[in-house]
Write the structure tokens for this entry.
Amino acid sequence: MEKIASFTIDHIRLKPGIYVSRKDQIGAETVTTFDIRMTSPNDEPVMNTAEVHTIEHLGATFLRNHAQWKDRVIYFGPMGCRTGFYLLLAGDLSSGDIVPLMEEMFAFMADFEGEVPGASPKDCGNYLDMNLNMARYLSWKFLNEVIHNISEERLVYPQ
């Protein structure tokens, strides 16, 4: 079998950042998949499921309510390796195009207080697996260590 595109990225050299993972044509529309890499693969500890789950709920809620972007959001969810998230948006986009959106989203999550949206037995299949404090911390860390001073090497996959 042919190796899929995401397995061809050098995960040893990959740093936390915002990358275009792929672009797909669906009819006349382009769908851009972003790799929102929050931890350094195979180098830093992966995120635990509770904070990943919390970030998924907060991020999806933020994105699907964003005045400018909500109609372009197709999916936001975690990577199986627990080092980051995938964001699929309608449109032929670059990593730089979404830096302001990611800055808003991670600031929202870092500052979030109250009940996590959808964290109830009626709304979620594993509503008890949440950790808002760690989700806030990891969002703050990514915002301050990566997004606020993002460089080209954190916007384009390493060759």
